[in-house]
Amino acid sequence: MFERLCGCCSRSASSKRRLRANDRIFNSQFKYAGNYIKTSKYNVITFIPQNLFEQFQRIANFYFLVLMILQFIPQISSISWYSTAIPLFIVLSFSAVKDGYDDLQRHISDRNVNCRKSFVVQNGHLNEEEWAKVRVGDVIRMMSNQFVAADLLLLSTSEPHGICYIETKELDGETNLKTRGAVAETAEMGDNLDAISKFDGEIICEAPNNRLDKFNGKLLWQGRELPINNDNILLRGCILRNTRWCYGLVIFAGKDTKLMMNSGKSKFKRTSLDRFLNILIMGIVLFLIAMCLICTILCGVWEWTTGRWFTIYLPWDDIVPNRQQHGSQQIAVISFLMFFSYVILLNTVVPISLYVSVEIIRFIHSLWINYDQEMYYENGENSVPARAHTTTLNEELGQVQYVFSDKTGTLTRNIMTFNKCTINGICYGDIIDARGEIVEITPKTKSVDFSWNSYYEPTFMFYDQKLLDDTRKGVPEVTEFWRLLALCHTVMPEQDKGRLVYQAQSPDEAALTSAARNFGYVFRGRTPQSITIEVMGKQEVYELLCILDFNNDRKRMSVITRSPQGKIRLYCKGADMMIMQRLKSSTSPLLISSTNTHLAEFANIGLRTLCLAYKDIEPAYFEDWINRQHEAAVDMYNREKKLEAVYEEMERDMTLIGGTAIEDKLQDGVPEAIARLAEANIKIWVLTGDKTETAINIAYSCRLLTDDMKEIVVIDGQTHSEVEVQLKDTKTTFDRIMNHQSPMTPAEKPRFEIETIHDDGHECRSMDIKQSLLSSEGDGGVALVINGDSLSFALDERLERLFLEIATMCMAVICCRVTPLQKAQVVDLVKRNKKAVTLSIGDGANDVSMIKTAHIGVGISGQEGMQAVLASDYSIGQFRYLERLLLVHGRWSYFRMAKFLRYFFYKNFAFTLTNFWYSFFCGYSAQTVFDAVFIACYNLFFTALPVLAMGALDQDVDDTYSLRYPKLYLPGQFNLFFNMRIFIYSVLHGMFSSLVIFFIPYGTLLNGAAYNGKDLDGYSTLAFTTFTALIVVVTGQIAFDTVYWTAINHFVIWGSLIFYFLLAILIYEALPLTLLAKTSSAVSYGVVFKTMSTPQFWFSILMVTVILLLPVLLNRFFWFDTHPSFADRLRVRKKLSKKIPMPKEQEEMPAFKRSAATRRSVRGSLRSGYAFSHSQGFGELILKGKLFKNVEQLRAKHNGY
């Protein structure tokens, strides 16, 4: 799977990497990759050949290349070679310029990255080097807030015990800080350049791979063998935070880094329409060959029966051997040559102008996206417009069925705010008016004034004055609530420009500690043995006796402190399901009930909840317990189990305080965008590196998960067999739900005119769409949640089909704790097995792989890090703009391209097949029925601009209606506007039109005479009449096809018709005959006025127009009146200025309730708003003093804050 996605050949599992620090000569023998990064495809030498090779992979381009070569052979060429060469050159040049520009941007990006500066330690000095020149084995120095240049072994840092802080947002999407530690033996080198430059440790480690969370290796130094694991490694793409400096040894560089191995490979993306066109072109070429074979055979018959007797008038070409014999051999040669002549003559059935026009229309569609002010994200200096980085995928934006989205930074802002709380059964956070009703909080609502607090933060907003009043009154439960939040955490305080700032390991802790600070309970400082807080201006120092650390199984953390009065107390915060089970039996049922009610209400509106409790501890019991805790902590074999048992013993019989509710702020408009996309039958999968509870809460907040859902299943098996059992159980459950849905009553039966496409009497209804509508209307369906460990088994070849079958039954799928590669694997699974267009959207380097894998990749710009944007096909400022990108621009692009292709094939079959019918009357000599000048101008001047205007400007409904009625998007998902049926209809329409266009004038002019007695059945009269009829009919047809008329449409449609007549008069009447003497137009000189003065000409034009256009007009009026499509009804509604009812998704949505059964397979139920983005291990680091810059100074000075 990895090789398929990333194009990287992984080394065998047994291979190892060996390197030596500060020894480039030793390391050079292994030829390890340098740190130079290359994401571009071309260079100056390879651009032309490689780009031409890619372009000639398109069958049409290759077809025209062969055609151009044939036209260089004079014996078979019936049209000049440059008539094909010039358009082909324009098409290739246009595409090459576009591809070259895109690749130039990648070169610029690569150069910016490769030219970043780093400091390499050499001979006791720091030498400034570009990133590209860093080599494996080099030791580099990094400063705070710098990106890590390569995968490094951490040697020493500015912090005690070799600890450093990193942000891994570009890798896993998380912005909370993580810690890494140097090996104790190397950490002693500190900032000593001499010692570091003399460091000659040898590393033996695993080969380059894409596993972000694992690393195995060892350091051989000074005769010792020291183990290395992932906690000692800094990965490329991380950012050094809150660490003044650190030194690292480069282990993997450039393309071998884990970030690059997870980034995937740039692929040449084609739309499904392109692939369908390739099939159509193959079919048209076969049809062309069939017509040429027919003409070839008939040519041989005609030459045998008639032509060979008139060679004195129509001599055979010199290339015919022994042409004076007039035998079958000579006729066979003539027929063979005539085959290629007809290939050249009839090649306009697939004109090169098709691809010129397609590229131009796509380019214009990209401009509409780039200059759409509705998708311009106003964000001060970081304001960004929407950008189309490619012009080849626009219409596919109108056919998306699956959206794969990152969470952090894509759906959310990752900004936590303290929103509500419940204390002693009383709910705080809502504003109540005089009538006892809750007042909605708006940006204009006045917040509580905290300016009395010298430590308050101006950005902190809270609106319930009652909580501040109770805090100032000293209500015991409220004071304990704030004291718990000020003491029970792992936050580190720092001074920044004279202001107290907090460095939190998770945004949740930062929000809670910040809330306590603003309400007057300020966390001031800490040492490994104490915590200092300031309560309403009075300093309190608590002795920190123990931290019962957080982990994913405990779902809680506790601290045991001794107050200044000598009282020992445990403070605990965690998931409600964990805290409620551990309360003392005497706790009031009313308190438990009201607290649970409040927490459920908080969770119902998508807030992240924590439950708070405390416990007073007797000193004697604590002494006994701490001894047993110490014994468990040093146990070599069952440390975790013994600690869990000891912690469980302590965290019992607690007193409930209340709960908190934190809002993880969604980006603006996310719930509304997701609701409309879901109504448009687009399934959204969230692929996130975040934890399960966090992802579930966000899914509820953005209404991806709703109360309407019948079942929400969590797959969390840790083995292959567990996952298999859970998937099979889930499949059974989902099948039962789907099969037992209540049948719809006649009144509830959905209407299908939305997807009914009326095209000249043909009605198309898709059973797939009916099922999609049935599943989307109703009770919300089912949803699936799966974590990364389980997903690795679900993506196994034996289970992937079962997993896909279950996932595609769901309205929403959430994959948690997934790696960047797993994101790409999930996208690839759907892409390979479902005939559906996939779209990936993300904002970080951890999303690059899935962005490249999907049919369409969208990057969120304006965030920190631009890897996702650079790898994407489109970039937008926020997730909400995806709605407009798909429902407006995508739908319009598909609608316009489909209409363009339908009309284009129609007009070219009508044009080309007229020559075919004429061959029956010209001795199958490959003579054209039209003047060569008009043949060249047909696709270039007479019909090009009208169809381009329609393809660039036409719309069935405007953007407002496209957003209000998302079901208008459905036809694109099922290719209802352009498919094989519609193509065949267009071809038949063109064939019938060519018959009428040729035979009506032919029959009218046959044996006809002008008023002066001159014959009208000459070649020039027939040619002018048929071509005029052709221009009038195709112009009338595009006038009927155009729905949205603008001044441009009027100008190009009627202007093209006028231009034709002006050009005909200019060539045949106005220009001197001497200028035309040597051209094929000379035989038609003077034909315009002569022909237009005859009634036969106007009768022919009238008959052709009535026969071809009147049925189309009547047919469309009939279907519009009796079976109008949904878009037709909307247009009529707008024209009649009827009041448009507010759609459901735009009405004010009430707070949704989370009463849906959320099942955790095997383990039982899961119902909680709990989410805590905290990592295990910080408590231990605090107690050991490893997070403190200078422990002794802090011990002495913490009272002086």
Automatic annotation (TrEMBL):
Classification via InterPro entries: ATPase_P-typ_cyto_dom_N, ATPase_P-typ_P_site, ATPase_P-typ_TM_dom_sf, ATPase_P-typ_transduc_dom_A_sf, HAD-like_sf, HAD_sf, P-type_ATPase_IV, P-type_ATPase_N
P-type ATPase N-terminal domain location: 20-84
PROSITE patterns: ATPASE_E1_E2
Any single GO CC term annotated in Swiss-Prot or TrEMBL for this entry: plasma membrane
Biological processes annotated in GO: Golgi organization; phospholipid translocation
Record lineage: Eukaryota, Metazoa, Ecdysozoa, Nematoda, Chromadorea
Membrane topology, from the record: Multi-pass membrane protein
Predominant place of localization: membrane
Keyword Nucleotide-binding: yes
GO molecular function: ATP binding; ATP hydrolysis activity; ATPase-coupled intramembrane lipid transporter activity; magnesium ion binding
Keyword Transmembrane helix among UniProt keywords: yes
EC class: translocase
Regions that span the bilayer: 56-73, 276-304, 331-356, 904-926, 932-953, 974-1000, 1020-1040, 1052-1077, 1097-1119
Residues the record marks as active site: D406
Domain P-type ATPase C-terminal, chain residue ranges per copy: 869-1119
Cofactor: Mg(2+)
PANTHER family: PHOSPHOLIPID-TRANSPORTING ATPASE, PROBABLE PHOSPHOLIPID-TRANSPORTING ATPASE
The organism of origin for this protein: Haemonchus placei
Amino acids binding Mg(2+): D406, T408, D843, D847
Keywords, ordered alphabetically: ATP-binding, Magnesium, Membrane, Metal-binding, Nucleotide-binding, Translocase, Transmembrane, Transmembrane helix
Subcellular location: Membrane
Entry EC no(s): 7.6.2.1
Catalytic reaction annotation: ATP + H2O + phospholipidSide 1 = ADP + phosphate + phospholipidSide 2
Protein name: Phospholipid-transporting ATPase
Family recorded in the similarity comment: Belongs to the cation transport ATPase (P-type) (TC 3.A.3) family. Type IV subfamily.
Matching Pfam families: Cation_ATPase (PF13246), PhoLip_ATPase_C (PF16212), PhoLip_ATPase_N (PF16209)
Amino-acid positions noted as binding ATP in the UniProt annotation, renumbered to this chain: D406, K407, T408, E509, F550, K573, R608, T688, G689, D690, R817, K823, N846, D847
